[in-house]
Amino acid sequence: MRIFMRAKKSWRLVMGSFALPFLVGLAGCGSATAATQEPTVTIGYENAPDPESVAIEQNFFQKYMHAHVVLKYFSSGPEALTSLASGSLDFMTTLGNPPTASAIARGVPLKVIWAMERYTTAEGLVVKNGSHIRSLKDLEGKTVALVQGSTSPFELDTALEMHHIPVSSVHIDNMAPPNMVAAWKTNQIEAAYVWAPFLNEMQQDHGHILIYDQNQVNQAPIFNLAVVNAHFASKYPQLVDQFIQAEEAGVKFFYAHPHKSFQDIGKLNGISAADAKAQAQGLHFTTLSQELTLRRLGTPSTVADSLVTKSLTSAAKWLKQTGQISAVPANMSQYVDPSFCQTVYNHSLKSGS
Question: Which H or E run includes 53?
Fold first, then answer.
């Protein structure tokens, strides 16, 4: 996940790798409350200009899930995944595929159950006009500003390898996106791999986009993912189905009521509706039926060949290559579970909804 502005909160980042102790996953929160006799379900989320923000603002999780729902904001992926591993968190959303793959490699008991959105043109490599950088080959010996630990180095490394350019030939300057913009304006940097709105700000200030995440979609697709504690899913499969229903309701509302949706997104994320709309333009959101295609989770019989499985595998290989994990988990498809989407989809066909 990338950085978004949230009112009265600092900039935050989901890291591509993290120091996570090996924790034995418990059976999830799932404890019944005395007042309602319903299990308590804790759902973690991060800032993002997407339909899930709409689902939160419209109270869809409370509406669809037969449980006492607790929504918990996290400022970073590592903290959230540690909570998921311990069982104090049942669901976590808005996770990028590198941190998800890293968590799997470290033994976090999770299942990917919903591909929220895929990045298309919301992140990319921007270079200064007049810098003589006209292709990736021209980056050799040059310096690129990016955020180490984010998805940006994963994307840049993949692009370089696709064009047979040694990754070591490109120097990296690790800096926060706001600092990149300041350095760009004072001509201290001439290339940066970063996400919107910083990408667009530099592009508009005598820059041009050399590549987007979209250019590596088959080799290194970037998703925001929703996951569930695997033990919780085994104990409460119907609650996972209902979580999927709430996510789907957010997507439906987003497309049916765009004006209201961007107001909801802005409200939750502490930005204007106009900024929410602008930030959402480089993302491709997913409907329930699309989840069951090879471009997302796939079906229970095709999950091994799905793009989400491929995205986790490629991320894990990059994490091992860069020394962030010790081994690539075998058969990454076992951590991607489209059965819940399949159940909800089949029920919608039967009910005609």
Answer: helix 51-57
Whether residue 197 is preceded by a cis peptide bond, meaning omega within 30 degrees of 0, is yes
Q: What is the DSSP annotation of 137-201?
A: GGGTT-EEEE-TTSHHHHHHHHHHHHTT--GGGSEEEE--HHHHHHHHHTTS-SEEEEETTHHHH
How many percent of the chain have pLDDT more than 90? Answer: 79
Only one residue has tokens 């001439």, namely 190
Structural contact between residues 125 and 156, judged by C-beta atoms closer than 8 angstroms: yes
Q: Which of 6, 20, 31 is nearest to 239 (CA)?
A: 31
* Strand stretches in the chain, DSSP E: 40-45, 68-73, 91-96, 110-119, 123-128, 143-146, 171-174, 191-195, 207-212, 223-229, 283-285
Say what percent of the chain tops pLDDT 70.
89
Q: How far is CA 92 from CA 112, 191, 225, 271, in A?
A: 10, 33, 8, 22
Quote the tokens at residue 289. Answer: 């039926």
Residue 34 has pLDDT above 80, yes or no: no
Mode of pairing for the β-strands spanning 110-119 and 91-96: unpaired
Where is pLDDT greater, at 160 or 149?
Answer: 160
Place of tokens 């400022």: 75
Residue 327 zone, left/alpha/beta (φ > 0; ψ -120 to 50; rest): beta
Residue 291, CA distances (Å) to 103, 222, 223, 248 in order: 22, 15, 12, 10
- Which two three-digit tokens encode residue 9? 């909160």
Compute and round to an integer the Cα radius of gyration of the chain: 20
Least confident of 31-35, 52-56, 209-213: 31-35
Tokens matching residue 228: 């569930």
pLDDT at 15 over 60: no
The tokens describing 218, both together, are 């088959």
Position 310 scores a pLDDT of 95
Summarize pLDDT for 253-307 with one digit per residue, the tens: 999 999 999 999 999 988 899 999 998 999 999 999 999 999 999 999 999 999 9
Residue written as tokens 């950085």?
3
